[in-house]
Amino acid sequence: MDRRTFSLGAVATLGVSGCGSSSARRFRSYNGPKVTSVVVNKGTRRMYLMHNEQILKEYDIDLGFAPAGDKRVKGDGKTPEGTYWINRRNPNSSYHLSLGISYPNALDRAEAKAMGKEPGGDIFIHGEPNRNRRQARDPDWTAGCIAVKNKEIEEIYAMVTDWTPIALRP
To answer: Is the pTM of this model over 0.85?
Structure first.
């Protein structure tokens, strides 16, 4: 092994093992039953991680600032209703960690277009804001996302894989 290879390896090792690294704490592992779906009940402000018909975990949630009804257009403050997919993850989120929801789908885009509007997008399950933590103290403070506490999104991020279906119910 040459000196350069050793140095790069040492730097990589130091970067991973950093004292109390906050990023190391954010990424948990999960070895339990597979999460086969996520169910959000907007009315009761609860989210469930399911393995078939069994509830694995449940969480209190905050929603968009105008939570009643289905999301129709950009900026309406509503959280979508319907069935979507977890389709991406953001380890560098402005809200600790986040899992993307596949809103808008073709129907959502068509409905917004018929109104002469944009459907919006960037709907996520996420943690608390990295800045302005005060914002998260208000109920239903997001722009249409589903928010949980930071420790909870760490758990959810580990348990839920991409392409898991998510049902958002009124």
So the answer is: no
